[in-house]
Amino acid sequence: MRTKILSAAVVILSLVAILVPAARAGLLLPRPDADPFYAVPDGIDHLTPGDVIDARPIRATVLSVPIAANAWQIRYRTIDQHGAASAYVATVLVPLAPWVGGGPRPLLAYNAIEAGLSLACTASYALRAGLAAPATSVAKYETGAIALAVARGWAVVVPDYQGPRSEYLGMDGYATGVLDAIRTARRFAPAGVGDDAPIGVMGYSAGALATVAAALAQPSYAPDITIAGVASGGTPGDIVTTTRAFSGDTLGGILGVILGGIDRSYPKLDLSRYLNAEGRAALAAGRDDCLLDGAVRHPRASIEDWATDPKLLDRPRVRRVMREMSPLTRRGNVASPILLHHAGFDEYAPLEEMQALAERFCVDGVAVQTTVVPALTHFSYGPVSAGNAFDYLADRFAAQPAPSQC
């Protein structure tokens, strides 16, 4: 008994020895909005999408516990939500252990749930700052899944796909940000990613939006990239449905981030003109929020509370923009095998919409597999969803035939 107590004490003291200095180091890091590395430099128009602009080595962590990987933050040239040349940041991690699988080491594009209006919500900051990253950053809690991907021996690129202006729900920028992050990971020589490395793309919830946006855009925007498999979990098929589901809900304050993202990413809509004084004040107060900040600040907020028209989401101009950002109605065609995995009781992204999305992708002529996990909800499935995605992608990396339910 005494030996067990001493062993436990040693483990605890070891963790303290690791975490305390790491957390202190994270606190000393500048926030991304004060870090010149995140700025868009002048004179990048002549660069090719995916070109490396700058890079720096970092220590990537899971809540300040180091990941067994060489890691870099890379600033790369891409095209933003508005069609302009821009510079995004991605984190590239390469396992310290040699690859022992067959063929070249795979590359996984992991699209974490950024879902915020501040650069402090990014995955790059969560991986580098660890415990010092905001408690309300959802990406902070996905770093464990990223470490598990590294533990499988895969190289991983984690793009900050919302770009330097944190354009939440800006699906054009999502698509280019993800695809150009894959290009830059292959071009960054220190990572050693081969041109023939099999490529996978995955994400859950808001990360699924980036994943599907990239998959739909790949044939036209990045025909030089062959994606072996795509895994999209908890995918919101229709953003109108998801927005309605949050309205008046316990997490209703998330509406502030949703509406703020739409207003920032689609400025021609001029969404604020449809809001009352309370709604405009909520957007102004939340302009630097991560997803969960809004939920805490405005519990049970609703469209009716903030809009001059309670049928805001039915207005033709609003509906047209939200159709553009919704996977069910967004333009493009998927050319890669895809897994759609979902909770059986998803209250924010209804199962029926995932099934409709599967039908749409079947029409594209690709192999589509669906997996439904019963008894779980959107937020309860999220923390355990990566396992299904990893298993599916491992088979694609091994060149096993993709199952299809089409």
Tell me what the structure shows.
Helices cover 38% and strands 16% of the residues. The termini are far apart. Residues 1-19 have low confidence and may be disordered. The protein has a 9-stranded mixed sheet, sandwiched between helices. It has helices at residues 2-28, 123-129, 143-151, 171-187, 206-221, 239-246, 254-265, 277-285, 291-297, 303-306, 316-325, 351-363, 378-381, 386-397; strands at residues 52-58, 61-62, 65-66, 69-79, 85-95, 107-111, 155-159, 199-204, 229-233, 338-343, 368-373. Helix 4 crosses helix 5 (206-221), helix 7 packs across helix 8 and helix 7 (254-265) packs across helix 9. It is an alpha/beta fold and 406 residues long.
Assess the beta-strand content as a share of residues. Answer: 15-25%
Q: Strand tally, please?
A: 11
Mean pLDDT, as a whole number?
Answer: 93
Read across the widest sheet, the strand sequence of neighbours is 1-4-5-7-6-8-9-10-11
How far the N terminus sits from the C terminus, by CA atoms, comes to 58 Å
N-to-C SSE string, H for helix and E for strand: HEEEEEEHHEHEHEHHHHHHEHEHH
The helix count comes to 14
What share of the residues lie within helices? 25-40%
What brief labels describe this structure?
single chain, about 400 residues, alpha/beta, nine-stranded mixed beta sheet, two-stranded antiparallel sheet, 14 helices, 11 strands, globular, disordered N terminus
Brief summary of the model shown:
The protein has 406 residues and is an alpha/beta fold. It contains 14 helices and 11 strands. It has helices at residues 2-28, 123-129, 143-151, 171-187, 206-221, 239-246, 254-265, 277-285, 291-297, 303-306, 316-325, 351-363, 378-381, 386-397; strands at residues 52-58, 61-62, 65-66, 69-79, 85-95, 107-111, 155-159, 199-204, 229-233, 338-343, 368-373.
